[in-house]
Amino acid sequence: MTTDPARDGLRARISHKSEDALGRLAQELLESPLVSGTISRAFEAREKAAQAQELAMGALNLPSAGDLERLTRRVRSVSQRLEGVEDALDRVDERVGSLGGTGELQQRLAAIEGQLTAFAGQLSELAAQIAGAQAGAAAPPAPAATVAPRSAGATRTRAAAARKRAAASRRA
Predict the structure, then answer these.
(1) Which of 73, 44, 68 is nearest to 54 (CA)?
(2) For the segment 74-96, what is each residue's pLDDT rounded down to a tens digit?
(3) CA end-to-end span of the chain, whole Å?
(4) How far apart are CA 109 and CA 100, in angstroms?
(5) Between the CA of residue 156 and those of 5, 99, 121, 150, 163, what are the distances in Å?
(6) Which of 14, 97, 107, 152 has a C-alpha 20 to 30 A away from that of 86?
(7) Which residues contact 169 (CB under 8 A, 6 or more apart)?
(8) C-alpha angle 111-114-119 in degrees, rounded to nearest 5
(9) Which of 54-63, 107-116, 149-158: highest mean pLDDT?
């Protein structure tokens, strides 16, 4: 297809003139106090309608778009925090796994518990001896256990016996 340069030139001139005319018309309309007042009143009416809609939604106990947006932001925030907690929990799990698993950890905790129970028994015996010495009792002090027991059951029995001896020396 061949294009006619005269026809293209005419089309360009008409297009340019119509754009200029529309620009002048829009400028004159915006400068008109009647049109600008009407536009400002329309925006004010829109704002009042939005406020009335929000009040009506609140009266009906329905959430507004702003309420839903705030709720969405809070849910995202909680989701991000939960992801952080999950990441921290994964790191803790990896560290526990690197310590040799939970079986070894349970054994270590049981050994620590046994030692603490033995120390508690020794402390109660010492407290009984001190109480006996302060009361002026002539009873010889009971020997203190110096070796940690092999099992938690035996330690609990020794601790109970030590508490009974301490109670008996206090009564005497």
Answers:
(1) 68
(2) 999 999 999 999 999 999 988 87
(3) 127
(4) 13
(5) 110, 28, 8, 11, 10
(6) 107
(7) 128, 131, 132, 137, 139
(8) 130
(9) 107-116
The structure tokens listed for 10 are: 């005419």
| b/e code 69-108 from CB counts within 10 Å (16+ = b) | eeeeeeeeeeeeeeeeeeeeeeeeeeeeeeeeeeeeeeee
Q: Is pTM, for the whole model, over 0.90?
A: no
Q: Which residue, chain included where needed, has tokens 């698993």?
A: 101
pLDDT in tens, 25-55: 888 888 888 888 998 999 999 999 988 988 8
**Residue in 88, 84, 156 with CA at minimum distance from that of residue 121:** 156
- Take residue 92 and report the two structure tokens written for it: 């803790």
Alpha-helical (H) ranges within the chain are 5-31, 33-59, 65-98, 101-135, 152-171
pLDDT at 170 over 90: no
